[in-house]
Amino acid sequence: MSILVGAQTRLLVQGITGREGEFHSRAMLEYGTNIVAGVTPGKGGQAAVDGRVPVFDTVADAMAQSGADAACIFVPAPFAPDAMLEAADAGVPLVICITEGIPALDMLRVHHVLRSKGVRLIGPNCPGATTVGGAKVGIIPGDIHRPGPVGLVSRSGTLTYEVVQAMTDAGVGQTTCVGIGGDPIVGTTFIDVLEMLNADPETEAIVLIGEIGGDEEERAADYCAREVRKPVAAFIAGRTAPPGRRMGHAGAIISGGAGTAESKRQALHAAGVRVADSPSQIPALLRDAGVR
Predict the structure, then answer these.
(1) pLDDT of residue 226
(2) Which DSSP state fits 124?
(3) H or E segment to which residue 137 belongs
(4) Does residue 220 have a pLDDT over 70?
(5) Is 21 helix (H, G, I), strand (E, B) or coil?
(6) Whether the predicted pLDDT of 261 surpasses 90
(7) Nearest-5° angle of CA 160, CA 201, CA 10?
(8) What is the pLDDT of residue 131?
(9) Nearest by Cα to 250 from 24, 4, 77, 23
(10) Exposed e or buried b for every residue in 228-258, given b needs 16+ CB within 10 A?
(11) Which of 9, 154, 213, 216 is the Cys-Cys partner for 259 at CB 3.0 to 4.6 Å?
């Protein structure tokens, strides 16, 4: 069983003729992802990625011709909000937005529109999602994965790659890896993905990668204590971050003493989650929890 994406996913890529869109579309195809269409206004009728993917002017045209059921967005920040809204208006049920640098006020508008239409948004400013052996959508490297029983959800793209590589090197495989993004306003939360992984019969344990800022990790800890009966291991980045200074992600900022790494670690500890001091400790914590 896969969550969010899998071998059955029929993907369209918005911005496929741009440098990033074409590069990562080629990598997705090589992994086995079923890309059925690309969208770039003004380039309809062409073919991208070595002639392998037909390009359409609009998402509606691409949907009508290809039967796509998911969209991945590689559109520059000034145009990405409209790209998400266009996908929602065309009826795409799952939108994964890789674009970073989208203003929070623009995302407020998009967030409410997509929610009102029942569209699942992953991101923005995220690395995407991979169902190991099924499909990868976004920019997560495919060759770092190994099939196995652990699901992973993370706010950080780079830490996703680091932890997945450490798990693979230790012989601990993955079911699904989801990067939800590091912006203050994202479409899908830790709790959303925890709920999906908790219900997935192939996922035996879960890894959560958080960071400073906001209270999503504290909410996730409360959900784990109430609902999750599978082992959970976690790492929180930013233990030495100074208050008031943004660290990398727009959402990674401590303000008024709230959102510290220590408060998140304590909440996870109290919920029975095994909390690592460094990403490299995650495989050992999973082994301690009985994951083989």
Answers:
(1) 97
(2) S
(3) strand 135-138
(4) yes
(5) helix
(6) no
(7) 65
(8) 97
(9) 77
(10) bebbbbbbbbbeebeeeeebebbbbbbeeee
(11) 213
Look up 249 and say whether it is catalytic.
yes
Give CA 189 to chain center in angstroms.
10
Among 96, 26, 5, 90, smallest CA distance to 56 is for 90
Give the neighbor-by-neighbor strand order of the sheet with 232-237: 135-138, 128-131, 174-179, 147-154, 205-211, 232-237, 274-276
Tens-digit pLDDT profile for residues 62-119: 999 999 999 999 999 999 999 999 999 999 999 999 999 999 999 999 999 999 999 9
**Mean pLDDT of the 223-245 span:** 87
Helix H segments across 32-103? 59-66, 80-90
Closest CA to 13 of 193, 43, 141: 43
DSSP 68: -
- The tokens of 268 are what? 């996870």
Give the Cα separation of 88 and 93 in Å (integer).
7
pLDDT band for position 214 (50/70/90)? confident
Rounded CA separation 10/29 (Å):
12
pLDDT of residue 251: 65
Query: Cis peptide before 231, with omega less than 30 degrees from 0?
Result: no
Can you name the residues that pair with 150 across neighbouring β-strands?
Answer: 174, 205
Q: What is the mean pLDDT of the chain?
A: 94
For the chain, the distance separating the N- and C-terminal CA atoms, rounded to the nearest angstrom, is 19
Instruction: Give the pair of three-digit tokens for residue 181.
Output: 């993004």
Residue type, 272: G
Q: Which residue has the tokens 């996703």?
A: 160
Catalytic residue, from 24, 111, 249, 269: name it.
Answer: 249
Orientation of helix 104-116 relative to helix 80-90, angle to 10°: 0
The span from the CA of 139 to the CA of 128, in Å, is: 6
